[in-house]
Amino acid sequence: MRTRTLRSVVYLAGGIGLILSVFAALEVYDASLSGLCSINSYVSCGAVLTSGHTTFVGLPDFAWGIGGFVAILAAAGLAEQSPRDPRRSYALLGITSAGVALALYLLTVEVGVIHALCPVCAGAYGMGAVTWIGAIELARRGWRRTHEDRTEAADPEGGP
To answer: Could you write out the DSSP letters of every residue in 13-45?
Structure first.
C-alpha cells in the first residue's frame, strides 16, 4: 500500500472515530439517540450509558474518544507535513497506542463489568485500532527511510 493511501486510511478511520465519539456524546444529552443502537439487552448503548461505569479518571468516555481522535488527526497531519522526520510518525504511533490501550480497558469494562456492549463505542474502538495499525506501518516506513538514509550517508558508494 502506498504511503499516501495509508495516510488516507488513518485520516478516514480517525474521522469516523471522531464522528462516532461525538455521537456517543450526543447520546448522553439526548437519551432517545441511545435507542438507535440498542439492539437487545447485551448489544445496547442504553445499558452501557446507564451503567454508571462510563467515566475514566473523572472524564466521560466520549470525551476521551473525542480528544483522542482529534489528537490522532492532528498528529497525522503533522507527520504528513514532515514525512522525512520519523519522530512525528513515532508521536502518532504513541498517541494511537495509548488510545488502543484505553479502548481495551473500556471494552473490558463494558463486557466484564457492565455485561453489555455499546456498538457505537465498539465502532470507535475499531477505528482506533485501524489508526494504530496504520501508525505502526507509517512509523516502520519512517524508521526504514531514516536507517537507509544514514547507511547511504555513511557509505555513499554502497559497499565495502
So the answer is: HHHHHHHHHHHHHHHHH-GGGGGGGB-SSSBBH
